[in-house]
Structure formats: structure tokens, C-alpha cells
Amino acid sequence: MIMSLSGSKPVISPQVNDQSKTQVAEANSGKVTQENELELAGETRSVRLAETPLKAEEVGKGRMPSQTYVTNFLARINDSLSSLFNNILNFVKEKVLPQDKAKAAMAQNEAILAFVSGNEDILKEVGFLRLSGGFGEINELKKSARTEGFEGTGPHALGSTFKQNIRDNLSEEDAESISKMVDTMVESRGRDELDLPALDEMPKIAQDAIMLGKQVAAYSDVNKMDANNLGIVFGPNFRLDDPSNLSRTSQYNDFFAKMIAS
């Protein structure tokens, strides 16, 4: 209510009255406003500072539209599910895909063995299995893991891919089995007959290598690849231990040379 004297002029001016109403309203809302005059850039300006009893994190709380809240909530769920799916996918890649890759590599080696078998043009190639093929051809063969259509592929690329498949996919179990067979042969030296395993007792990955070696050795007078040379070619590919152990390397080379010559 505005008080006045003599029923004419108000005791409180409209400007002061409005300011009082504003201060009362701010006091009721818990907000305190302070107005000061500051000189800025040569001019006097009024600056109003407002304080609120609410904590900073509570300011604006509850003002988010419900639709926006739901959208954000669903987005967080989607992110969580995506993260879970990626973790599962990575686990599958680590555990399952290497096994599939090894099977594909061994299937390719079997196909190369079948393609080369009886193919005198390849078997008579000088340095077959010893000389390296072109990187592009080898890379294409390994990536595609194809088991057919080898016509036109360089023989050295086929031989290099065959050896690379062994190096990349030799399992610890197969490596351990072959290591024990090498030890048995070494222990039998000096006897009337070396103790060598039957071919079908060896891991399949080694059987294919020895069978290919036997066919290549049959043309050693042309390709210059006898059993000893082939032993040197294949031996190191079947080791997972320290390659700097030269005496062990010699034992492996001798083992595969004897298996190919037998």
C-alpha cells in the first residue's frame, strides 16, 4: 500500500515503491541482490550482483525437458551396450579367429602340396623352397588364403608361402611334440639305426612339409635341393625356442633331412 499526505502526493515515490517490491520479492525467493555503481571506461555504470542460496550443482536442476532427459538416458544405454559388444567382439577375435586362421593356413598348405605334386616344372625349379618369391604374390596368397587358382603363380612364391604358413601357425603343442622327436633322434646317434618317428606319428603340419620335401629331393640333380638342403630350409620353421641356439638348429636341420631322405 502506498501512503500519501493530504491525499495528493504519495509519501513514497513510484520508483522507490517498485524497488521495494523487487527487494521484497527477492528476499522471499531467497535471492539477495546488490547494486553498485562502477566507473567503467570513463563512464559510471550500475552493476547488479545476485546471490542465491542454492548450490551450484542445483541451479537449473529439474528444468531439463522430459523428452531430452529420456533421449540422454537412452543414449547412455546405447553407449554401454556398444562398449559391451566391442569387448565381446575383441575377445572373440583374440580367442577364435587365430584358430580359424591356422586352419585356413594349413588348408592352403595342403592345397599347395597337391598342386605341386607331380608338377615337374615346379619341382625342377632351381632353388625351389630355398629362394624367396615376390613379396606381392606371397602377401596376396596369405591374405586370400585361397586353396585353388595357383596357375600362373610363381613357384618360389608358392614355396615361400608354404614355409611362412608353418612359421605363423605352428602351435606350442606341435612344436613340443616335434622337439621331443628331435631329442629322441639325437639320443639314438651312435646306434646302428637312428630312432626316427613314422611319418603318420608326426603333427600334420610337419607331415605336409616332409612329403613336399621328398618330392623336391627326387629332382635334386636338377633343382640343386637335396635332403640336406631341404633340412636346412624346413628345420628352423618348426622351432619356437631360442633361434640363436645354433647347436639346436643343427639338430632340427639334421632331423628333417633324415626324415626327408628316409
TrEMBL record:
<feature type="compositionally biased region" description="Polar residues">
    <location>
        <begin position="14"/>
        <end position="35"/>
    </location>
</feature>
<dbReference type="InterPro" id="IPR008936">
    <property type="entry name" value="Rho_GTPase_activation_prot"/>
</dbReference>
<dbReference type="InterPro" id="IPR000198">
    <property type="entry name" value="RhoGAP_dom"/>
</dbReference>
<feature type="domain" description="Rho-GAP">
    <location>
        <begin position="123"/>
        <end position="238"/>
    </location>
</feature>
<feature type="region of interest" description="Disordered">
    <location>
        <begin position="1"/>
        <end position="38"/>
    </location>
</feature>
<protein>
    <recommendedName>
        <fullName>Rho-GAP domain-containing protein</fullName>
    </recommendedName>
</protein>
<dbReference type="GO" id="GO:0007165">
    <property type="term" value="P:signal transduction"/>
</dbReference>
<dbReference type="Pfam" id="PF00620">
    <property type="entry name" value="RhoGAP"/>
</dbReference>
